[in-house]
Amino acid sequence: MTVNKDSKCVFVIDENLPKGLAANTAAVLATAVTVKVGGMVGTDVTDGGGFCHPAITQVPIPILKASADELATLHAVARADDALLVAGFSDIAQRSRSYDEYATSMAALEPEGMRFLGVALFGRRKRVASLTGMFGLM
């Protein structure tokens, strides 16, 4: 997938997470999206004093809130749409002490059994909005 003028990216985070876990969830989702979406990140910029600032996102990313049940439904509906990039951050990922432990745990679990702390969607603006428009800002 690649960013274009019709692209939209939204993060939806569990409304009951403490602030620190919510911030961590958003950071992990950002990593997942920027790895998979071409053009998501701009180029480095230099300020007037000559200091180089590393690139940041070129796409606004609203961070919304939802209940755990709403996140599960959102993930289930969105993953059925091949035109969307869907990235989920689960309680298994949050609890895992290594990537290997995370991968092993995920391989043994059906999607219906996952508890998502956050879900990121990237795709056509109208489609992403249709799936996330009912959620409020975090």
Key words describing this protein structure:
alpha+beta, two-stranded antiparallel ribbon, 5 helices
Task: Walk me through the topology.
Layout: E1 7-14, H1 19-36, E2 45-46, E3 52-53, E4 63-66, H2 68-79, E5 85-90, H3 91-95, H4 99-107, E6 116-124, H5 125-132, E7 136-137
Parallel strand pairs: 1-4
Antiparallel strand pairs: 1-6, 2-3, 4-7, 5-6
Structure explained in plain terms:
The chain is an alpha+beta fold. It has a single domain, classed as 3-Layer(aba) Sandwich (Bit1). The protein contains 5 helices and 7 strands; from the N terminus they run βαβββαβααβαβ. The strands form 2 sheets. The chain has a 5-stranded mixed β-sheet with strand order 5-6-1-4-7, with helices on both faces. The chain has a two-stranded antiparallel ribbon with strand order 2-3. β2 and β3 form a beta hairpin. The radius of gyration is 16 Å and the shape is globular.
Tally of helical segments? 5
Number of domains: 1
Taken in chain order, the helices and strands follow as EHEEEHEHHEHE
What is the CATH homology-level superfamily?
Bit1
> What's the average pLDDT?
97
The span between the termini is: 26 Å
The overall strand count is 7
Would you tell me which CATH topology applies?
A: Bit1
Q: Uncertain regions: pLDDT < 50 for 5+ in a row?
A: none
How is the biggest beta sheet arranged? 5 strands, mixed
How would you classify the helix and strand content by structural class?
A: alpha+beta
What percent of the residues sit in helical stretches (DSSP H or I)? 25-40%
Q: What is the CATH class name?
A: Alpha Beta
Calculate Rg over CA atoms: 16 Å
Strand content: 15-25%
Can you name the CATH architecture? Answer: 3-Layer(aba) Sandwich
